[in-house]
Amino acid sequence: MSDTNAPATRSMDAIVSLCRRRGFIFQSSEIYGGINGFWDYGPLGTALKRNLKNAWWNDIVDRELLGPDGKPVDIVGVDCTIIMNPKTWVASGHVGGFNDPMVDCKESKARYRADHLACICLNGQTEGGQIYAYVSGDDDSLARARKALDKYCKRTLQDTDVATCPFSALSAAERGITVGPDAKTPGSLTEPRMFNLMFETHCGAIRDADSLAYLRPETAQGIFANFWNIVDTSRVKVPFGIAQVGKAFRNEVTPRNFTFRSREFEQMEIEFFIRPDSANEWYAWWRDQRFAWWQSIGLAGENLLLRAHDKDELAHYAKTGAGTSDIEYRFPFTSPGFGELEGVAHRADFDLKAHATHCGKGDKMRYFDQERNERYFPHVIEPSAGADRGTLALLCEAYTPDPARPSGVYMKFNPRMAPIKAAVYPLVNKEGMPEIAESLYRELRREWSVEFDEKQSIGKRYARMDEAGTPYCFTVDGDTATDQAVTVRHRDSLQQERIGIGQVKEWLRERIG
Ligand code: ATP
Q1: Of 81, 115, 133, 481, which is most buried by a Cβ count within 10 Å?
Q2: Closest ligand 1 atom to the C-alpha of 217?
Q3: Is 104 found in the same domain as 79?
Q4: Does 140 share its domain with 169?
Q5: Is 218 left (phi over 0), alpha (psi -120 to 50) or beta?
Q6: Does 403 reside within a domain?
Q7: Dmax of the chain from CA atoms?
Q8: The dihedral formed by the CA atoms of 393, 305, 302 and 1, expressed in degrees to the nearest 10
Q9: What confidence category does residue 1 fall into, taking pLDDT thresholds of 50, 70 and 90?
């Protein structure tokens, strides 16, 4: 996560509470107390996430996309299994290297990612004094550590009295005097140990080493493993891409920040296969294309950042390549820093070569480029995005406090993303108004997700739609029967205007597509 100096403006607690209250997101199996790192989407959240995924698929696979040379870009879809032959994960490097350093607390039994732990102590007192660990980015955890340090020093310390450092920078002796984030006694945190993030399972009735399998930790490898099938069975030619949307599973050591770091999540990945000598051009094009896409669906402001990786951040396969960039969003819990939404990486020919080697066919698996009459392993540009992090960014961006409204807040979704596109209301539940409203509702419902509601005061119904982020509400009133017009209320400006009932459909189509 990178930093800027922008202040935190939105409260995550308020956003989480709205998500729960209005049915965007619930804890998985909440009736049993939930399960850490797993989340369910309610009706509004499901619609929001589906709109995000559909927009991605439409804009990437279905619609014409013009590449850097102005020619249409060829991208096809796949839908691969979650469980694959375990050799896949040996070839991809996940069995050997998909590890995070993990620290256990012997006292609280909590487990932390070592690179997520930071420490504070009295300036100049790493030896002899007491050190307090906290989870970086978690304000409550930091506040607890500061309180404990104040208590230990028997005074209220100023910021200038306190020194901070990453847990990984402590010596063994310093770790011995460090109190864990949820503990009271020093020395309870273990040495960092490597922990593989893949969920394991067994296929078949016998649970032994031969039946061991993994839940995929990314959707990308299904694409790579099918590269040859797709070249053989469709008319694609390099450059072309394969896209997939689907679930991925990672046994994250410390799932946190709502859905941002979950153990089950959805990815939207493209592997774009190119000639090795065109990597710079395609990498730059995809990076800019993907950044512009997130802007187009409503993350247009200064909360979105395109950040090129420093050389020391690059994955091993990317070291000599065209580069890696992250598209990052400033979430309330990362602010003033940013958290990753999508990575765009030049992966060179690492994955195709690795699969060719591990399946035993080696160079025979090289792609034959008819135009050039040459064989090679194509290079890959990989834009890899998270559907859950994308949905969370849309929720955080949309959340707009407004004390003047009865709901106190409204969700300013881009209309293309809005779970409900419009509501149709009779002003009162009598005098023919419900019948006219219902017939308009039915007409609109043929094309869009539209809500009809005749209960409660009109103010309460508008407030519900403000919280759901519905861009337009159409109200049938006492004049409608005579002037054949309805009042449309705009969610953001609260302006109201009168339009002919026969024009509503076209009016809406122009605004939401
Ligand atoms: P991080 O550094 O935050 O763990 P990553 O670099 O490991 O992320 P990738 O392996 O590049 O992530 O995965 C691609 C995308 O998948 C990420 O940009 C993110 O949107 C999503 N993603 C990865 N891990 C998680 C997770 N635990 N929960 C939700 N989304 C995730």
Answers
A1: 133
A2: 10
A3: no
A4: yes
A5: beta
A6: no
A7: 85
A8: 70
A9: very low
Mean pLDDT computed over every residue of the chain: 93
SS (H, E, C) 205-226: CCCCHHHEEEECCCCHHHHHHH
Bond preceding residue 426 cis, omega within 30 of 0: no
Q: Are 382 and 344 in contact (CB under 8 A)?
A: yes
SS3 state at 232: helix
- Does 244 share its domain with 348? yes
Residue that finishes a domain, picked among 169, 195, 221: 195
What residue type is assigned to position 191 of the chain?
A: E
Tell me the CA distances in angstroms from 102 to 109, 135, 142, one per residue in order: 13, 13, 19
Asked whether 477 and 458 are in contact (CB, 8 A), the reply is no
- 358 shares its domain with 243: yes
Specify the residue with its C-alpha closest to ligand 1, atom 24: 261
Mean pLDDT computed over 165-175: 90
Shared domain for 179 and 291, answered yes or no, is no
Question: pLDDT tens-digit profile of 227-261?
Answer: 999 999 999 999 999 999 999 999 998 898 999 99
| Gyration radius of the chain's alpha carbons | 27
Where are any strands of DSSP class E within 33-126? 39-41, 75-77, 99-104, 111-113, 117-122
Q: What is the CATH number of the domain that holds 313?
A: 3.30.930.10
pLDDT at 452 over 90: yes
Beta bridge partners of 382: 345
Mutate to test the pocket of ligand 1, among 198, 215, 245, 267 (most ligand atoms within 8 A of CB): 267
- Average of pLDDT values for 327-347? 95
Q: What is the CATH number of the domain that holds 424?
A: 3.40.50.800
Q: Match 């992966």 to its residue by tokens.
A: 347
Please state, in angstroms and rounded to a whole number, the distance separating the CA atoms of residues 512 and 221: 36
Q: Do 215 and 357 fall into the same domain?
A: yes
Residues with CB under 6 A from ligand 1: 218, 250, 252, 261-262, 265, 267, 340-343, 384-386, 388-389
pTM of the model: 0.87
Within-domain flag for 407: no
DSSP state of 191: P
Domain count of the fold of the chain: 3
pLDDT at 127 over 60: no
Per the domain annotation, does 35 fall within a domain?
Answer: yes
- The reply to whether 245 and 361 lie within a common domain is yes
Residues of the domain holding 443? 420-512
Question: Do 108 and 215 have their domain in common?
Answer: no
Residue 379 near residue 274 (C-beta atoms within 8 A) = yes
Q: Single out the residue in 195, 224, 251 at which a domain terminates.
A: 195
Three-state helix/strand/coil letters over 375-393? EECCEEEEEEEEHHHHHHH
Q: How are beta strands 472-476 and 422-426 bridged, if at all?
A: parallel
Please check whether residue 365 is in contact with residue 356, taking contact to mean a CB–CB distance below 8 angstroms. yes
Dig out the tokens for 152 from the structure.
Answer: 């230990």
**Count, residues in the chain:** 513
How much distance in Å is there from the Cα of 268 to the middle of ligand 1? 11
